[in-house]
Amino acid sequence: MLLSRLRPLPALPYPSSTDDLRGDAAVAAAAEDEAEDIFAAFLPHLLPDDAPQFHGDPGQCLLYSSPRYGDLTIQVPSYPDQSGSASSSPKQSDSDSSVNSVDSNSDPGQVDAQRSLFAHFVWSAGLIVAEAVEDAHAGREHVDEMWRVEGEKVLELGAGAALPSTVSILAGASEVTITDHPSSPALRGAIAFNLKRNIPATNGCAVSVQPHEWGTLASDSWAMANRGRFTRIIAADCLWMELQHKNLAQTMKWFLAPEGRIWLVAGLHTGRPVVVKFLKTAMEMGLEVDTIYERDQTTSWAEGDGEIRRDWVEVREEEGPENRARWCIVARLRHAC
């Protein structure tokens, strides 16, 4: 099943900077299986209705087993007070567009605000995107051609650990830009580690990592320079904050190329009404739904059990917290005609 592709590895010391990334020997030493980790990896098989929406602990490394690309080591972003390394992190000025460093003596409210961004997990929605991109690259017959990224310019919003971006690079995208909120902890080492660990030096994709706050466009020189640039935009589990729906839709429309497509994947852990509200907001902002369906996250073609889908509905009467966790919404958006 799809969710069992991720296996936790023992946590490694979090790097004090993007230059302090663990080497192969340290990662290999951390790859010894532990009984409880193996059991946890198979819990979705035993309790599919309780399928997890997110994976990993802050600073932990997860092993993503890819049928096409082999084992990928994905580090979950950490936080200064969890890593104990923030005092040696480089500081930025408030006017800098890069991430402002927050040390362990910072205002607890500021650290809590960063936590509210939920970057310190790998979300199941990201696994859905990663699998679809990989299957399309492998040429599997069941996959919609729109998941192919060869030669495409890909933008990931709210990337966190950036698993979909990592797979897109391996799948032949010509350009991949990884973005997260300027205060996201993912920009302080985890993304850099994941790229260095998993992307061969000979890969020809143009890769960049860019802080971006949704809805901040005309005042952002990077946003102004890249308007309408991206042919594929990834938004995996980005709908949890309803107050940001308009900003998110504005950012999507701004960066989307005229014939481009947005891949929106949203777990139902935030509730079906949240997805409905965002889709309505997106349409008000000039986007439209090209394709939409509901997918059982516990199923996977690569694992031999196929993929279970059902039609999207705005209201499902029999649905509740006890039986919705295994489902996610998969939508493809485009510019309105």
UniProtKB/TrEMBL annotation:
This protein's superkingdom? Answer: Eukaryota
Looking at the record, which segments are called Disordered? 1-28, 74-110
Q: Where is the composition biased (Low complexity)?
A: 1-17, 77-109
Q: A Gene Ontology MF term for this entry?
A: S-adenosylmethionine-dependent methyltransferase activity
Gene3D superfamilies (alphabetical): Vaccinia Virus protein VP39
Q: Name one GO cellular component term.
A: cytoplasm
Protein's name in the database:
Nicotinamide N-methyltransferase
Q: Which organism is it from?
A: Aspergillus aculeatus (strain ATCC 16872 / CBS 172.66 / WB 5094)
